[in-house]
Amino acid sequence: MTDPTPTTEPKPATDPKTVNPMLKTALEFGPILAFFAAYLWLKDEIFTIGGTEYNGFILVTAAFIPVFLLCMGALWKLTGHLSRMQAVTAVLIVVFGGLSVWLNDERFFKIKPTLIYLLFGGALAIGLMRGQSWLQAVMEGLMPLKQEGWMILTRRVMWLFFGLAALNEVIWRTMSTETWVYFKTFGLTAAILVFFMFQGGLFKKYSTEEAAE
User: Fold this and answer.
1) Distance separating alpha carbons of residues 201 and 213, to the nearest angstrom
2) Which of 150, 95, 155, 104 is nearest to 129 (CA)?
3) Distance between CA 92 and CA 55 in Å, rounded?
4) What is the rounded distance in angstroms from the CA atom of residue 164 to the CA atom of residue 142?
5) pLDDT tens digit string along 92-135?
6) Is the per-residue pLDDT at 75 higher than 70?
């Protein structure tokens, strides 16, 4: 489809179900915060399972995977919808978290954010090369913008994702596991929030007339 105008697209048969915002937030961020708290609790512990020693990070990772999937399943059940970004994230968590546990090597789980942001940034880059804003399809309901605004925002978000991928590589390769856990839990989220806070000028300049009214 080359025409990005949403008014020409047929509406889905059923809209996403309404869910309590607090519950939705808890399901989305609860597993991450639980991972952080469990890591701080068990980071210095060594566990012997089946004759193999596992540190606290690996054990917490093993517990995080099913908890995350259960929360995503509950979110899908409540809303009737999961975004492509959530689906891709879930697959990468299972694959790379599973590799970390199976091979007893925490590096696989640490590289996951790098791959997530490279995939998302690469997808946006492909859309831009085709003259399309694929970010618009994901976020249009949240930020009504003119087409030119969507193209500018997509380009900026693309570079944000590539920058976060590079930053994650620097952090996990040069700093301690504890530093990376703090960065993963709070740093990445804060970086995205700060980024969108600084896009106020773009939102104001390219907002649709309906949004301005």
Assistant:
1) 17
2) 155
3) 22
4) 23
5) 999 999 999 999 999 999 999 999 999 999 999 999 999 988 88
6) yes
